[in-house]
Input
Amino acid sequence: SQQGEEDPQALSIQEGENATMNCSYKTSINNLQWYRQNSGRGLVHLILIRSNEREKHSGRLRVTLDTSKKSSSLLITASRAADTASYFCATDGKGAQKLVFGQGTRLTINP
Amino acid sequence: EAQVTQNPRYLITVTGKKLTVTCSQNMNHEYMSWYRQDPGLGLRQIYYSMNVEVTDKGDVPEGYKVSRKEKRNFPLILESPSPNQTSLYFCASRRDRGDGYTFGSGTRLTVV
Output
Protein backbone atom coordinates (compact mmCIF):
# COMPACT_ATOMS: atom_id res chain seq x y z
CA SER A 1 0.00 0.00 0.00
CA GLN A 2 1.21 3.47 -0.77
CA GLN A 3 1.40 5.54 2.36
CA GLY A 4 3.28 8.61 1.21
CA GLU A 5 1.42 11.03 -1.00
CA GLU A 6 3.45 13.72 -2.63
CA ASP A 7 2.50 17.12 -3.83
CA PRO A 8 2.90 18.41 -6.43
CA GLN A 9 3.19 15.52 -8.88
CA ALA A 10 5.28 17.70 -11.16
CA LEU A 11 7.15 20.95 -10.63
CA SER A 12 8.99 23.07 -13.17
CA ILE A 13 11.10 26.03 -12.06
CA GLN A 14 13.95 28.20 -13.27
CA GLU A 15 17.52 27.49 -12.32
CA GLY A 16 18.45 29.32 -9.15
CA GLU A 17 14.95 29.23 -7.69
CA ASN A 18 13.98 27.16 -4.68
CA ALA A 19 11.92 24.00 -5.04
CA THR A 20 9.57 22.73 -2.36
CA MET A 21 7.96 19.30 -2.36
CA ASN A 22 5.51 17.99 0.19
CA CYS A 23 4.73 14.54 1.49
CA SER A 24 1.85 13.32 3.62
CA TYR A 25 1.53 9.94 5.25
CA LYS A 26 -1.01 8.00 7.27
CA THR A 27 0.49 5.95 10.08
CA SER A 28 3.05 6.36 12.85
CA ILE A 29 6.62 6.35 11.69
CA ASN A 30 10.13 5.79 12.99
CA ASN A 31 11.60 8.02 10.33
CA LEU A 32 10.91 9.56 6.97
CA GLN A 33 13.40 9.52 4.12
CA TRP A 34 13.79 11.36 0.84
CA TYR A 35 15.27 9.83 -2.29
CA ARG A 36 16.15 11.13 -5.74
CA GLN A 37 15.81 9.14 -8.94
CA ASN A 38 17.19 10.18 -12.28
CA SER A 39 15.19 8.81 -15.17
CA GLY A 40 15.04 5.02 -15.01
CA ARG A 41 18.01 4.75 -12.69
CA GLY A 42 18.44 3.68 -9.10
CA LEU A 43 17.23 5.74 -6.19
CA VAL A 44 19.75 7.75 -4.24
CA HIS A 45 19.21 8.35 -0.53
CA LEU A 46 19.22 12.08 0.21
CA ILE A 47 18.27 12.59 3.82
CA LEU A 48 16.59 10.87 6.76
CA ILE A 49 14.65 12.61 9.50
CA ARG A 50 13.62 10.76 12.64
CA SER A 51 10.20 11.07 14.22
CA ASN A 52 11.58 13.10 17.14
CA GLU A 53 13.24 15.63 14.83
CA ARG A 54 11.50 18.62 13.31
CA GLU A 55 14.06 19.91 10.83
CA LYS A 56 17.24 18.70 9.20
CA HIS A 57 19.70 20.19 6.76
CA SER A 58 22.15 18.67 4.32
CA GLY A 59 23.89 21.04 1.93
CA ARG A 60 21.18 22.70 -0.17
CA LEU A 61 18.50 20.39 1.23
CA ARG A 62 16.21 21.23 4.09
CA VAL A 63 13.66 18.74 5.38
CA THR A 64 10.93 19.40 7.88
CA LEU A 65 8.71 16.92 9.65
CA ASP A 66 5.41 17.58 11.38
CA THR A 67 4.25 14.37 13.01
CA SER A 68 1.05 15.97 14.28
CA LYS A 69 0.02 16.67 10.69
CA LYS A 70 1.76 13.57 9.34
CA SER A 71 3.56 15.61 6.75
CA SER A 72 7.05 16.48 5.58
CA SER A 73 8.55 18.90 3.12
CA LEU A 74 11.77 18.90 1.13
CA LEU A 75 13.24 22.23 0.13
CA ILE A 76 16.02 22.43 -2.43
CA THR A 77 17.59 25.85 -2.45
CA ALA A 78 19.38 27.54 -5.37
CA SER A 79 18.32 24.81 -7.79
CA ARG A 80 20.60 23.59 -10.56
CA ALA A 81 19.92 21.80 -13.83
CA ALA A 82 21.46 18.67 -12.28
CA ASP A 83 18.65 18.63 -9.70
CA THR A 84 16.23 17.61 -12.44
CA ALA A 85 14.92 14.24 -11.25
CA SER A 86 12.04 12.56 -9.47
CA TYR A 87 11.95 12.90 -5.71
CA PHE A 88 10.31 10.35 -3.44
CA CYS A 89 9.46 10.37 0.21
CA ALA A 90 9.48 7.05 2.01
CA THR A 91 8.21 6.24 5.46
CA ASP A 92 9.71 3.72 7.82
CA GLY A 93 6.71 2.71 9.87
CA LYS A 94 6.71 1.55 13.45
CA GLY A 95 6.73 -2.24 13.50
CA ALA A 96 7.12 -2.45 9.75
CA GLN A 97 10.03 -4.00 7.93
CA LYS A 98 9.89 -1.91 4.81
CA LEU A 99 9.93 1.56 3.42
CA VAL A 100 6.68 2.68 1.87
CA PHE A 101 7.24 5.08 -0.99
CA GLY A 102 5.11 7.88 -2.29
CA GLN A 103 4.39 8.36 -5.99
CA GLY A 104 7.05 11.00 -6.31
CA THR A 105 7.41 14.56 -7.54
CA ARG A 106 8.95 15.08 -10.95
CA LEU A 107 11.15 18.17 -10.72
CA THR A 108 12.38 19.95 -13.83
CA ILE A 109 14.92 22.75 -13.56
CA ASN A 110 14.93 24.99 -16.61
CA PRO A 111 18.23 26.69 -17.51
CA GLU B 1 33.21 1.63 -3.45
CA ALA B 2 30.17 0.81 -1.35
CA GLN B 3 27.47 -0.40 -3.66
CA VAL B 4 24.63 -2.73 -4.51
CA THR B 5 25.21 -4.57 -7.76
CA GLN B 6 22.36 -6.00 -9.77
CA ASN B 7 22.61 -8.10 -12.89
CA PRO B 8 21.51 -8.01 -15.58
CA ARG B 9 20.60 -4.38 -16.25
CA TYR B 10 18.25 -5.32 -19.07
CA LEU B 11 16.53 -8.60 -19.80
CA ILE B 12 13.95 -9.67 -22.35
CA THR B 13 12.56 -13.14 -21.85
CA VAL B 14 9.63 -15.30 -22.82
CA THR B 15 6.70 -16.35 -20.69
CA GLY B 16 7.49 -19.33 -18.50
CA LYS B 17 11.26 -19.33 -18.82
CA LYS B 18 12.78 -19.31 -15.35
CA LEU B 19 15.15 -16.46 -14.60
CA THR B 20 17.21 -15.09 -11.75
CA VAL B 21 18.19 -11.51 -11.11
CA THR B 22 21.25 -11.35 -8.94
CA CYS B 23 21.92 -8.80 -6.22
CA SER B 24 25.08 -8.38 -4.21
CA GLN B 25 26.14 -5.76 -1.66
CA ASN B 26 29.61 -5.12 -0.28
CA MET B 27 28.66 -3.15 2.83
CA ASN B 28 27.95 -6.03 5.22
CA HIS B 29 24.36 -4.83 5.50
CA GLU B 30 21.83 -6.87 7.47
CA TYR B 31 18.71 -5.80 5.58
CA MET B 32 18.08 -6.40 1.92
CA SER B 33 14.96 -5.87 -0.09
CA TRP B 34 13.52 -6.15 -3.58
CA TYR B 35 11.19 -3.55 -5.06
CA ARG B 36 9.45 -3.24 -8.37
CA GLN B 37 8.58 0.09 -9.92
CA ASP B 38 5.65 0.51 -12.26
CA PRO B 39 4.11 3.67 -13.76
CA GLY B 40 1.19 4.83 -11.68
CA LEU B 41 1.88 2.27 -8.95
CA GLY B 42 5.19 3.54 -7.67
CA LEU B 43 7.65 1.37 -5.80
CA ARG B 44 6.30 -1.74 -4.15
CA GLN B 45 8.20 -4.17 -1.99
CA ILE B 46 8.36 -7.76 -3.23
CA TYR B 47 10.42 -9.52 -0.55
CA TYR B 48 12.82 -8.53 2.17
CA SER B 49 15.42 -10.18 4.34
CA MET B 50 16.54 -9.19 7.79
CA ASN B 51 19.52 -11.52 7.87
CA VAL B 52 20.91 -14.73 6.47
CA GLU B 53 18.20 -17.37 6.08
CA VAL B 54 15.51 -14.88 7.20
CA THR B 55 13.20 -13.72 4.43
CA ASP B 56 9.62 -12.53 4.33
CA LYS B 57 6.99 -11.37 1.90
CA GLY B 58 6.44 -7.77 1.02
CA ASP B 59 3.38 -6.30 -0.65
CA VAL B 60 3.57 -8.10 -4.00
CA PRO B 61 5.34 -11.47 -3.53
CA GLU B 62 3.23 -13.58 -5.89
CA GLY B 63 5.29 -15.13 -8.69
CA TYR B 64 8.64 -14.43 -7.01
CA LYS B 65 11.06 -16.29 -4.79
CA VAL B 66 14.15 -15.17 -2.96
CA SER B 67 16.94 -16.71 -0.95
CA ARG B 68 19.53 -15.38 1.49
CA LYS B 69 22.18 -18.02 1.91
CA GLU B 70 24.95 -15.47 2.34
CA LYS B 71 24.81 -12.02 3.83
CA ARG B 72 25.95 -10.26 0.68
CA ASN B 73 23.67 -11.94 -1.87
CA PHE B 74 19.90 -11.74 -2.29
CA PRO B 75 18.80 -13.15 -5.67
CA LEU B 76 15.28 -12.70 -7.03
CA ILE B 77 13.90 -15.74 -8.80
CA LEU B 78 11.00 -15.79 -11.23
CA GLU B 79 10.11 -19.46 -11.65
CA SER B 80 7.60 -18.91 -14.46
CA PRO B 81 7.62 -15.28 -15.59
CA SER B 82 4.47 -13.75 -16.98
CA PRO B 83 3.94 -10.50 -18.91
CA ASN B 84 2.53 -8.78 -15.79
CA GLN B 85 5.99 -9.10 -14.26
CA THR B 86 7.38 -6.74 -16.87
CA SER B 87 8.78 -3.99 -14.67
CA LEU B 88 11.81 -2.15 -13.36
CA TYR B 89 13.29 -4.03 -10.43
CA PHE B 90 15.49 -2.66 -7.67
CA CYS B 91 17.50 -4.39 -5.03
CA ALA B 92 18.38 -2.36 -1.95
CA SER B 93 20.24 -2.86 1.30
CA ARG B 94 20.68 -1.05 4.58
CA ARG B 95 22.75 -1.58 7.69
CA ASP B 96 19.80 -1.90 10.03
CA ARG B 97 16.37 -0.47 10.72
CA GLY B 98 16.42 3.26 10.92
CA ASP B 99 18.96 3.69 8.13
CA GLY B 100 18.52 4.74 4.56
CA TYR B 101 18.68 2.22 1.76
CA THR B 102 21.41 1.94 -0.85
CA PHE B 103 19.79 0.98 -4.13
CA GLY B 104 21.15 -0.93 -7.07
CA SER B 105 20.98 0.53 -10.57
CA GLY B 106 17.93 -1.49 -11.49
CA THR B 107 16.99 -4.33 -13.82
CA ARG B 108 14.53 -3.60 -16.58
CA LEU B 109 12.70 -6.85 -17.27
CA THR B 110 10.41 -7.44 -20.23
CA VAL B 111 8.43 -10.66 -20.41
CA VAL B 112 6.86 -11.38 -23.81
